[in-house]
Amino acid sequence: MTRRFRRTDPEQDLQHWFEVGDDGRVLRQISFRGGGPAALVAAAPAEREEVRQVGGGLAVQLYEVVYGTAWPGPVVEPADAVPVTELEFTLAWGRARSHRQCDVRHDSGPVPVGARLPGTFAVSPWAPGATGVLVDLGLSVPGFVDALILLRAECPWPPEGTPAVFEVIDIRVGNSACQLRLRPTATPAPGEPWPSPAPR
Fold first, then answer.
1. Strands 177-184, 143-146: pairing kind
2. Which residue range forms the structural domain that includes residue 80?
3. How far, in Å, CA of 108 to CA of 11, rounded?
4. Burial of 90 (0-12, 13-18, 19+ CB in 10 A)
5. Are 134 and 74 within one domain?
6. What is residue 121's predicted lDDT score, i.e. its pLDDT?
7. Residues 129, 52 share a domain
8. What is the pLDDT of residues 74-109, one digit of tens each?
9. CA 170, CA 135: separation in Å to the nearest integer?
10. Which CATH number does the domain housing residue 125 bear?
11. Interval 69-80: pLDDT, tens
C-alpha cells in the first residue's frame, strides 16, 4: 500500500514530502526549503533508473543536478509525520518539478549550463527546418538545437556531420530520456555555408 506523509526538519529549515511503498522505499520525494516554493528535491528513484538505462552514469548525474537525490533506503514514518492525500502530494509534486525544471539554473555538475562543447550536427528523424537538429557530442546523452535558433539566425540548415562548438542552454530530463539543449556559439552569415561536414 502506498503511503504519503510530510515531516519537518527544523534544524535544516526543510519540509520533506515522501511517497513510499510497502517496504518503506521512496517512490517519490519532495524537499522544500522553508515549506516552499523553492524545492531542493523532486526525485523518483524509478525514474532515475530509467534514465540510467538510456544514458548511463552521465544521465544519472544530470538527473540529480535537475531533480536532486531521493533518500536512498527505506524511510521510517516518524510519530509527528503529517499524512498527505494523493491529491495534495500530486499538487506539491507539480510545483516542485516545475521549480526544479524552470526556475533553477543548472550550472553545476558534469555538463553545466553555460559549458561549451564541440560536436557535429547529426541525422534527425524529422525534415530539415522542422523541430530542430540532433547533435552528436561524443557523450552518452544527445544534444539538440531547437529549429527556432537556426531560423532566427537565417542560416542554412546544417548538413549531417557539420562541426560546431555548442553552448549548453538547458538540461532536459524525463520520460526515460535525457538531452542537452544547445545553441551554436557561431552560425554562418545569411547565405553563407557552414564549415564542411566531417569526413565519414
1. parallel
2. 3-103
3. 25
4. middle
5. no
6. 95
7. no
8. 998 889 999 999 999 999 999 999 999 999 999 999
9. 14
10. 2.40.50.140
11. 999 889 988 899
Cell 535525457 belongs to which residue? 178
Residues 46, 96, single domain; the answer is yes
Check: CB of residue 90 under 8 Å from CB of residue 138: no
Residue with cell 562543447: 117
Q: Determine the Cα–Cα distance for residues 39 and 190; give it in Å rounded to an integer.
A: 43
Report pTM: 0.91
Q: List the grid coordinates of 166.
A: 555548442
Short-list 118, 125, 129, CA closest to 182: 118
In degrees, rounded to 5, the angle at the alpha carbon of residue 50 between the alpha carbons of residues 69 and 5 is 45
Our CA angle for 55, 166, 60, nearest 5°, is 20
From 64, 82, 103, the end of a domain falls on: 103
What's at 154, amino acid-wise?
A: E
Sheet holding 26-33, edge to edge: 39-43, 26-33, 14-20, 3-9, 82-83
Q: Which segments of the chain have a pLDDT < 50?
A: none
Residue 39 lies in a domain: yes
